[in-house]
Specification:
The complex is a heterodimer. By secondary structure, chain A is of the alpha/beta class. Chain A is built from 21 helices and 17 strands. The relative contact order of chain A is 0.08. Classes of the chains: A alpha/beta, B alpha+beta. Bound molecules: flavin mononucleotide (FMN).
């Protein structure tokens, strides 16, 4: 067997991939040094570092070299022979993931409580019950300064403390796993990958406030998550970690799952409570807050999945440990679901304070198309877009809010120049209009009116007076809506207006969509000089809007064209002009 | 099953030791959607058919959804690595090369996965 392994990959995408040449060259060098039976070289698909030339990783030494020239390979082979490190090539990563919440995801079997035990499972709960007691437990959470990960960023300890101080014969805890933001799936992954950590977090919350009953509110679209939570709850009961007299203490807790039918507004805490009570899922005015008067009128703590998954580690390692991670106002890590035009879409967990650019460029490898980033959207339908030139902003609750967006639950959508900054807010607003429960007028009517203005603009019928009108309506919605849905629904519009007003004006004044997205404002035409008369556009047009034949050539009948872009996509000769 | 006491819990956390060689297949929604079930079944079958001393396990999503199905392989003496976009074809190579011949498979590793 080989004593050492070298992984190799050319990460420069601006020229031809040189991985194979470098691989052969390195093998030759190793042979010269008589190391070919000692070291194996492996070409890899992705080495986790981007645009840093030739990258090599050496195991078990755990050395990473980047920007290695072909001439450097001989020296690397020699250094392996001499067991030396070549400082000049050593790669110093700027951004790294820090996995606290996701520490077990992809590592342990989510259906095995034993594997959870082996990674400190339920030791946090034990410490809370046996060593800390309610007051010291809440003190630890206060010291950690953790804030809710469900969107609003409310201090977790404060919520717990309110609920603890209220005298009541019954109290409740609820895990909010409704996760309705388009593009966000952090909570699903945590529940599917490490369900016991959330159960443990919820049990600790219940112990802190003195609740004896808890609910998981999960959307029905997450059947696998539901199945795994169910299994995990049963295992916990079997081991006496749920039920009566947990770990031999007076503390008892029962957990149950409630399925949500997928209405976005049911993620809002008061609507969620109504839904569990079997009523129509619509929000109520607050105060009273749920921590005082919640489920069935009893003190209730509602926390998000990711918030709860943090709790066992905080209890076990101490609030002080946690408070050392992150920025001044935002402690710990945040999981983002990075999607859109990005190369490596997926979940990223970073310490608060990492910049958006580090997340998108260094960790996720930039855009898939190689085109420059235009903006990044955070916070889903309640958030906003952050333009390219502000990507060096360190991520935390306050910074994102200052930019007109929000941290939100963790959706992050990367957009390049093909995304239209009128179309994007139109999509989000359309979502909010559809999901508005209709109970309050500002949200129900305001959202609908704003959407009409955006439709008008994207169809080329916009007027310049529409822009101040959009701002006026959104102010009314922010001030007068009953719940967060209506209060924040205009954020995508306001933030695009703030950073991309010129693009709105281009739509209104010149009836032109620079991104080529708004179908009413674009036309497709065939460039005769480039057309090879292959007929592929003709056969692919779904509405027969392309006429002609191989002799005479082809043309587009504008009246028939539905602007679907099929011809543009299938033409191999770039002979279709989109304008 | 006996209910755990605080001492019992301490004991259990130390008693569960995971050792030996293993293959882990990411089996969350994203992995399953990309075909992880087929890959998992293939490993289980092959391990049985060839009488391999290797445990085939399920795990959740490691986060790198773009490269699903993800398969992590730990073989004594080799660095543990993650293979991405694994289909039956790649899975076959993992068995032949990585598990049996103790050599990592070219062009299939995603070392970006944490
Ligand atoms: C329209 C709307 C949808 C929401 N959806 C969710 C959700 O899906 N998951 C979630 O945890 N919080 C959601 N929230 C926030 C919750 O109301 C609540 O603040 C949160 O669950 C509290 O948990 P935390 O303190 O741990 O963040 C939503 C809020 C609004 C206004």
């Amino acid at each position: 067997m080989y004593a050492k392994t070298v992984l190799i990959k050319d990460t420069d995408t601006t020229r031809e991939d040189k991985t194979r040449e470098a691989y052969t060259r390195l093998l030759d060098c190793l042979r010269e040094d008589n190391l070919h039976d000692h070291v194996q070289v492996v070409r890899v698909s992705d080495i986790g570092i981007y645009e840093h030339g030739l990258v090599l990783k050496i195991y078990p030494d755990n050395i990473t070299y980047a920007n290695v020239q072909e001439s450097g390979l001989k020296r690397i082979a020699d250094s392996i022979r001499d067991s030396k490190v070549l400082e000049e090539f050593v790669f110093k990563p700027k951004a790294r993931q820090l996995r606290l919440v996701l520490r077990n995801c992809g590592k342990i079997n989510p259906e095995s409580i034993d594997e959870y035990f082996a990674s400190e499972g339920y030791l946090g709960l034990k410490k809370a019950i046996s060593d800390l007691g309610q007051q010291k437990l809440i003190d630890e959470i206060k010291l950690s300064s953790i804030r809710g990960r469900g969107g609003a960023g409310y201090p977790t300890w404060l919520k717990w403390n309110f609920a603890r101080e209220v005298k009541a014969d019954q109290k409740f805890v609820i895990c909010n796993a409704d996760e309705g933001d388009p593009g966000a799936y952090m909570d699903r992954s945590i529940l599917e990958g490490d369900p016991h950590s959330v159960i443990e977090g919820l049990s600790i919350a219940a112990f802190a406030i003195g609740a004896s009953k808890g609910y998981f509110y999960v959307r029905a679209e997450y059947p696998l998550a539901v199945e795994r939570i169910n299994k995990a709850i049963k295992q916990a009961y079997d081991h006496g970690l749920l039920g009566k007299n947990i770990l031999g203490s007076p503390f008892s807790l029962d957990l149950e799952i409630r399925l949500g039918a997928g209405a976005f507004v049911c993620g809002e805490e008061t609507a969620l409570i109504s839904s569990i009570e079997g009523k129509r899922g619509t929000p109520h005015p607050r105060p009273p807050y749920p921590s005082v008067k919640g489920l069935w009128g009893k003190p209730t703590v509602i926390n998000n999945v990711e918030t709860l998954a943090n709790i066992p580690q905080i209890v076990l390692k101490g609030g002080k440990w946690f408070s050392k991670i992150g920025t001044q106002t935002s402690k710990g890590t945040k999981v983002f679901a990075v999607t859109g035009k990005v190369k490596n879409s997926g979940l990223v967990e970073i310490a608060m304070g990492a910049t958006l650019r580090e997340i998108v460029m260094d960790i996720c490898g930039g855009t898939l198309s190689g085109k420059p980033i235009k903006a990044v959207q955070t916070g889903g339908p309640s958030g906003g877009v952050i333009p390219q030139d502000l990507l060096d902003t360190p991520v935390d609750y306050e910074n994102l809010q200052k930019l007109g967006s929000i941290m939100g639950s963790g959706g992050m959508i990367v957009m390049d120049e093909d995304d239209c900054m009128v179309d994007i807010p139109k999509f989000y607003l359309g979502f909010c209009v559809e999901e508005s429960c209709g109970k309050c007028a500002p949200c129900r009517i305001g959202g609908f009116q704003m959407l009409n203005y955006l439709k008008k603009i994207s169809e080329g019928k916009g007027e310049i007076s529409d822009l101040p009108q959009l701002k006026r309506i959104s102010q009314a919605m922010q001030k007068a809506s009953l719940c967060g849905l209506g209060q924040t629904a205009s954020n995508p519009v306001l933030s695009t207006l703030k950073y991309f007003e010129a693009e709105y004006k281009e739509h209104i004044l010149n009836k032109h969509c620079p991104a080529g997205k708004c179908s009413h404002l674009i036309t497709y035409n065939i460039i005769e000089e480039k057309c090879k008369r292959c007929g592929i556009c003709f056969t692919n047009c779904p509405v027969n809007a392309i006429v002609g034949d191989k002799e005479k050539g082809y043309s587009v009948i504008q009246e028939k064209c539905i602007k679907c872009g099929r011809c543009f996509d299938v033409c191999k000769f770039k002979a279709i002009l989109r304008k | 099953m006996a209910k755990l006491t605080p001492e019992g819990l301490d004991k259990i956390s130390k008693a569960v030791i995971i050792e030996g060689d293993w293959i882990k297949v990411g089996m969350s929604s994203c992995g399953i959607a990309a075909g992880a079930e087929e890959v998992y079944d293939f490993f289980v079958e092959e391990a049985k058919k060839r009488n391999l001393k290797i445990e085939v396990k399920k795990c959740g999503c490691a986060g790198s959804c773009y490269a699903e199905p993800l398969v992590e392989v730990k073989v004594e003496g080799l660095p543990s690595v993650v293979y991405g976009r694994v289909n039956k074809d790649v899975a076959g190579k993992i068995i032949e090369k990585h598990i049996i011949a103790k050599m990592l498979v070219n062009d299939c590793i995603f070392d970006s996965v944490v």
